[in-house]
Here is the input.
Amino acid sequence: MGTTCQTATLRNTTQWGCDDSLLHQELVERRGYTGDVGGGINLLGNMFNYHGPMLFLANLTYDPATSSDTILKSIDEVIEPLRTKPIDQKTLDRAMVKLRSGLYDTVGAQGGFGLVDLLASMALFDDNPSRVNSLVSEFQKVTPALLQKTASEYLRPANRTILLVQPQAAPVAAPEAPAQKQ
Amino acid sequence: MMTRTPTRKFLLSAGALALAAAPALAQAQKETPPAGGPAKAFTVPAHETYALPNGLEVTLVPYGNIPKVSVDLTLRTGGVNEPAGLRGIADFTTDLLKEGTTTLSSQALAEATARMGSSLGAGADDDETILRLDVLSENGPDAVKLLADVLQHPLLPESELARLKSNAVRQITLAKSQPGTIAAERFSKLLYGDHPYGSVIPTEENINKISIDDVRKFYAANYGAARSHLYIAGKFDSAAVKRAIAESFTGWAKGPSIVENAPMPKAQRVLDVTDRPGAPQSTIYVGLPVPGTTSPDNIALTVTNSLLGGSFASRITANIREQKGYTYSPHSVVSRRYHDAYWAEVADVTTAVTGPSLKEIFGEIGRLQAEAPAAAELQGIQSYLSGIFVVQNSTRQALIGQLQFVDLQGLGEDYLKTYVQKINAVTPADVQRIAKQYLKPDEMAIVVVGDKAKITEQLAPFAPATPASK
Here is the structure.
């Protein structure tokens, strides 16, 4: 869970869903390449209910006039400083507030099922559902130095996969598919 | 709008669990589940509503135990107030509101909201514009003040216009590539013509035409205290929040009165096909205008819709999804705009069964018109609607959504208090009458987006007797 705390804090610092995040400020506000940077950790659930290796991703839609290299260069200009120097305390403090706010939303989601899901996850992974009560204090232990170490370890360019979905030059007929039934 | 429902992901997970348990259950004798208890009424939490001298309405709803508070400012302006040729300007204006105030840059504004645990949400639909901050409880008063600043002292900077237009045009391009959007656009156009309700997305030309003067004029003509309502729900210090409201909103100019722009929807059988060569599925809209929310038949119409196509247990879904396997996620809706509504069945069906899908949809409408539903079937739908109403309204934002809805429609809070009771008072004969009175197949518009080469022949039986002009 230590690593989960660090990467989750990193996620709140860098990207998506928050207008003050570093990727939003760079790609949306300064460069105007996109209107929104989406993504997160554990898109099949939330950043509190997993245990073990997990995908950390960002996604955005940009215009054909911009090259993918340009986008990646901008992303690198956000990520690389996180790996090489400690982030300022004010930025980290904001990330912590957003994280706490997000946790409360998760707890209250789906008419109470959010809390039930967290209790179940922590019972499963930690044999300790009451850990839900100490999540906030665990996150508060994250320091700028620890965040830098986490970014340096996990946000290595060699670790990342880049997927590009591009429009085709001309429409190609898709094969007829039967309706799926579940 | 903004009502929380279980996510598709959640439903799929629940389905997967049910599937995993199936072999064990199959071995046991199937038992009838115990009957549910009588439907419980929905109780609107105690709340306080008052108005400032400038006309701003305020509603405070202490609710729940999550240490967060939602601060929503609802303005009675939206697509209905857009000048001709400037479709999209209501929503575009909200994009510019996020670009800072006369004393806060856009970055400073973003950081200020982040320090409260939120981002500023802002958007406009056809009837309303909503600005929202959903913050940690201790930041409730500051959120009120920040929202007041954004509304009263927006920078509306010309420097950001080109970038925001690019964003809007990109979204439009993406939306127009989706058959669902194309079908919704065609359906709206057929029913509402040139009225703002007649379009679900603006055109690129509309967006590119918007100047900063247009935005400033729209803001001046449509923003003000007299057509606004501030809703605050969650856990918060009521006295401190009220002080913040008085300090920061009392000086807001009363502004212009509400400008109504009622549509005159058209009911006529039209078959409207948009070609999508190679499409593996056809996207279908079938529907017509129905009485709005203030009609005495509103609740009975809600129940009828849920039984016919609006719930997972509904007849059309059971038919074209469960029995025939034509489609994965068919559903019918009753729209809920200001004093206006349409009913529509919407489905993405396999291309080869486009015609048969329509035949079944009309078949189910006809069956309900010919024979009242069995009491047990209706009761199942009523239990579903009663239960889901209580569950769906168990968050601070959903409560705000319901209060916004009754205020917009002028229904009064009795609507919420008596909803469950009225749902359960609908009889099988009522449902049959509603189907006969309002869901007239001859007056339904049929919109299909699909591969014309493969569906034209299938659709021929559904063309109007006398082709309508387009």
Q: What stands out?
A: The domain at 48-178+199-249 of chain B is CATH 3.30.830.10 (Cytochrome Bc1 Complex; Chain A, domain 1). Chain B touches chain A through 57 residues (CB under 8 Å). Chain B has a mean pLDDT of 91.
